[in-house]
């Protein structure tokens, strides 16, 4: 029997999303999510798609990403889809920071693990979780290839003009300080899916991709290659996010240290975990923010306005970087669901050929769709991302050639 299944683990700072896919038959066999890892009220939600069964939910303490993966393995085993299955060809892992070294999906060995570990200081919320996921999966199935698919890989095509910060070259190079970019698997998948929606090849189109989830980033994709993206050395730069500030004057940090008396670690926590939407209004969920705005909440409205202002600046910037834009694609939790965010982000940009049709924008759905008015110069689209499918495809392409 040929092994044709791939398990994908997308480990975030406090969650694991997973999918089990059959790459030969092209179907999803199971999917799920473990949330609030490290808290007493962790929650596991598992859907056995192949078995046609109902979603099972379980709440209780899950201490870390290792325990989360073991719980996932138990759920899969209950449906006869356990990790011991001979049909499993590989486990694909999202790894957020791959530095400059990893431009392709990579089979994990001890050297690769050491490199991912070395990059922890520049992805402190993500790489430790990714590492724990890989180590646990390896312990459960030492014989299986574990494949790392890096968020940074798609951005390694950025020209030096976009990838370098304008700081002393020797200092920057000594400490590998440059712009790496993240969410690359999503930007790659969504830019290709957008070309397909337009009936064109990726080489023929220039696309601005707006990945708006808890973490958020924009990218400028020229003929299928990334030429700029909003995240930098770490996933902190760029857009306003759920808990992260995005762009600030770097001198804010000196000021908070010297005048505010804060330590570097305190400032790190402030900018990564207590800023963005949550810092501005106390909520990081766009649904809650919209609800509060409808009730006349001034702080929620200001948070929304700051979020939109930054987003609009990046649309304009990447329009200029690309020169010609064929499409703007909204994706991830906010981009796929929040029609008000999409409408506000392109409001007033008619002279750039950008607009949304109110009726089309209000339609909900899981399929890629256009929301710009018929005949618009630039297509505006909602293109659901599927990082897990993309990771599975890349993983199987690497190991499944038997
Ligand atoms: N129906 C909705 N309307 C508005 N925003 C939504 C909706 N559903 C999800 N979101 C937003 O999407 C976010 C999560 O996006 P997601 O892409 O799943 O993030 P991540 O992968 O970074 O955890 C939530 O925090 C919330 O702000
Ligand atoms: C890189 C990053 O920000 O990822 P996430 O959106 O999953 O936090
Ligand atoms: Mg995400």
What characteristics describe this protein?
402 residues; alpha/beta; Nucleotidyltransferase, domain 5; 8-stranded mixed β-sheet; 15 helices; 14 strands; binds adenosine-5'-diphosphate; binds acetylphosphate; binds magnesium ion
Structural overview:
- The mean pLDDT is 95.
- Helix 1 (65-78) packs across helix 3, helix 10 packs across helix 11 (298-322) and helix 11 (298-322) crosses helix 13 (339-346).
- Strands 5-4-3-2-1-6-8-7 form an eight-stranded mixed β-sheet, with helices on both faces. The chain has a six-stranded mixed β-sheet with strand order 11-10-9-12-14-13, with helices on both faces.
- It has two domains: 5-150, ATPase, nucleotide binding domain (Nucleotidyltransferase, domain 5, 2-Layer Sandwich); 199-382, Nucleotidyltransferase, domain 5 (2-Layer Sandwich), CATH 3.30.420.
- It contains 15 helices and 14 strands.
- The longest helix has 25 residues, at 298-322.
- Helices cover 38% and strands 20% of the residues.
- It is globular.
- By secondary structure, it is α/β, with parallel strands linked by helices.
- The protein has helices at residues 65-78, 110-118, 127-140, 160-163, 169-174, 184-197, 251-258, 264-273, 276-281, 286-294, 298-322, 332-337, 339-346, 358-362, 387-399, and strands spanning 5-11, 16-22, 27-35, 42-47, 56-60, 88-95, 106-107, 146-150, 206-212, 216-222, 225-229, 327-331, 369-370, 379-382.
- Adenosine-5'-diphosphate (ADP) is lined by residues 12, 213-215, 242, 284-287, 332-334, 337-338.
